[in-house]
Specification:
The protein is mainly α. Helices cover about 85% and strands about 0% of the residues. The chain contains 4 helices and no strands. Helix 2 packs antiparallel against helix 3. The radius of gyration is 16 Å and the shape is elongated. The two termini are about 15 Å apart.
């Protein structure tokens, strides 16, 4: 993506990071809230939540690397 295209959508890198963090948080909530609200949820259910969240973070790894450079 060219610099000019980037700035059509985001005022700066911090806005992009904020947007990505909001999306990650929304994804995390969709995965975690139903399980955490279930009083019968066990350790396996919690482990599934963690695995799904990590998988999501790995999906954004290239973007994170690009932001840090």
């Amino acid at each position: 993506m060219s610099r000019s295209t980037f700035y059509l959508h985001f005022p700066d890198k911090s806005e992009l990071v904020t947007r990505l963090a909001e999306e990650d948080l929304q994804d995390w909530r969709q995965v975690a809230e139903p399980v955490l609200a279930d009083p019968r949820a066990d350790r396996d259910a919690c482990e599934r939540i963690v695995r799904e969240i990590i998988t999501g973070w790995r999906g954004h790894a290239a973007v994170a690397r690009g932001l840090s450079s």
